[in-house]
Design brief:
The protein is α/β, with parallel strands linked by helices. 32% of the residues lie in helices and 15% in strands. Helix 1 crosses helix 6 (186-199). Bound molecules: flavin mononucleotide.
Length: 208
C-alpha cells in the first residue's frame, strides 16, 4: 500500500475547520457537530477535531517540487508537517469540513489544507457544514466542486447550511454549541451524518 492510500476501514472521523480566526464561531460549531455525531454514531468511532492553528496546520505556502497529484510516497513530500498532515488524513475513515463563507467563497486556509494533498482525499467519505448569514450556500457550492470533482472526495448528498443570527456575525455573540437556534439544523445534520456513516460502512444509531 502506498503511504498516501486511504485507510477505508478507519474508525476515525477527522473534523477540519475552515476558519483560523480566534474568538469566532468555528469552535462552538465544531462542538455542536461533534457532540451530535458522537450521539448519532456508535461509540467505537473516534471524532478528532483538528486545531487549524496548531501543527501540522496551518501548512503555509505549497513547497512541493512536484504537483501533489504526482506524489505517490510519503517521502516525496518536502516537509514533516506535510507528511503529518498526510498521515492524519490517511488515518481518517471520513472527514467533516466545517467552514464559514468568506466573500461568497471559502477561506484560503481551507483550500491550502486541501491542496497540500491529493490521493489521500480520493474516495474519502465526507460531509460539509457551512455557515454564514444565509448558511454559506455559495461556499458549499464551490467546495462541492473542489472536493467532489477536483479531489474525488465521496461527498454525502446533503450539505448542512447553518444560518447564524446577526448578533453571531456582527455582534458580540459567539456559538458555544448548545444554542436553541441550532436545533433547526439538526435534521439536516442527522441526514448528512447518517449517510456519512453509511459511506464508512456502518449504520447510524436509531434516534433516542
Ligand atoms: C473575511 C470575511 C468575509 C465574510 N464574508 C461573508 C459572506 O460572504 N457571507 C456571509 O454570510 N458571511 C460572511 N462573513 C461572515 C462570516 O460567515 C461569519 O463572521 C463567521 O462567523 C466567520 O466564521 P468564524 O467566526 O468561524 O471565523 C464574512 C466574514 C469574514 C471574516
Amino acid at each position: 500500500m502506498s503511504a498516501t492510500t486511504t485507510t477505508a476501514t478507519s474508525k476515525r472521523i477527522g473534523v477540519i475547520l475552515g476558519s483560523t480566526r480566534k474568538g469566532g464561531n468555528a469552535l462552538g460549531l465544531a462542538k455542536w457537530v461533534s457532540t451530535f455525531l458522537q450521539k448519532n454514531i456508535p461509540d467505537e468511532i473516534e471524532i478528532v477535531v483538528v486545531d487549524p492553528v496548531t501543527p501540522p496546520q496551518p501548512l503555509g505556502p505549497l513547497l512541493h517540487p512536484q504537483m501533489p497529484s504526482l506524489v505517490k510516497e510519503l517521502s516525496d513530500y518536502p516537509t514533516e508537517p506535510i507528511r503529518d498532515w498526510s498521515r492524519f488524513v490517511s488515518s481518517c475513515g471520513a472527514i467533516v469540513v466545517i467552514t464559514p463563507q468568506f466573500n461568497w467563497g471559502y477561506p484560503g486556509e481551507l483550500k491550502n489544507a486541501l491542496d497540500h494533498l491529493y490521493y489521500e482525499w480520493h474516495g474519502k467519505p465526507a460531509m460539509m457544514v457551512t455557515y454564514g448569514s444565509r448558511g454559506g450556500a455559495k461556499c458549499a457550492e464551490q467546495l462541492r466542486q473542489v472536493m467532489g470533482k477536483g479531489l474525488k472526495i465521496k461527498l454525502v448528498g446533503r450539505d448542512v447550511l447553518v444560518s447564524l443570527p446577526h448578533d453571531y456575525i456582527a455582534g458580540e455573540e459567539r456559538v458555544k454549541g448548545d444554542e436553541e437556534f441550532l436545533k433547526a439544523f439538526e435534521e439536516s445534520l442527522k441526514e448528512a451524518s447518517d449517510e456519512l456513516y453509511e459511506l464508512m460502512g456502518g449504520e447510524a444509531n436509531a434516534p433516542a
